[in-house]
Design brief:
The protein is α/β, with parallel strands linked by helices and about 130 residues long. Helix content is about 50%, strand content about 15%. A four-stranded parallel beta sheet has the order 3-2-1-4, with helices on both faces.
Length: about 130
């Protein structure tokens, strides 16, 4: 690997599986310390273990990306522990399967909160911490 982001501190949400997992693994391969967040602790901790076993650096924190106050807390903790936050990947997202007739407004709102609103919350928390 090229080490393009060696020494950087990277936060990847929804990194317990899928694209978030792949992003976290690649960032670690490129030398970043990766802060992995997800609501699925078991999967996310497994990703951290895989990264560590491969010689990378990662830590897991539970995060509900729809909780605005938790964003500030998490970013504050990262700054406290690592002195900075260089990269934020707002990856967390959910898909509600069903037709418009079958999907409830509660499901619609949850999907929007996780997949859209959380991106703004995460970006704002990271920028405020600079």
């Amino acid at each position: 690997m090229s080490g393009r982001i060696a020494g950087k501190i990277a936060l990847v949400t929804g990194a317990g599986s899928g694209l978030g997992e792949a992003t976290a693994q690649r960032f670690a391969e490129e030398g970043a310390h990766v802060v992995i967040t997800d609501i699925n602790a078991e999967q996310a901790e497994s990703v951290c273990q895989d990264i560590s076993a491969a010689g990378g650096s990662a830590e897991y924190h539970y995060q509900d990306v729809t909780d605005e106050r938790a964003w500030d807390t998490l970013v504050g903790l990262i700054i406290k522990d690592h002195g900075r936050l260089d990269i934020v990947v707002n990856n967390a997202g959910i898909v509600i399967r069903g037709s418009v007739e079958d999907t409830t407004m509660e499901e619609w709102r949850k999907s929007r909160a996780v997949s859209i609103e959380a991106v703004g919350q995460g970006s704002r928390a990271a920028v405020k911490a600079r």
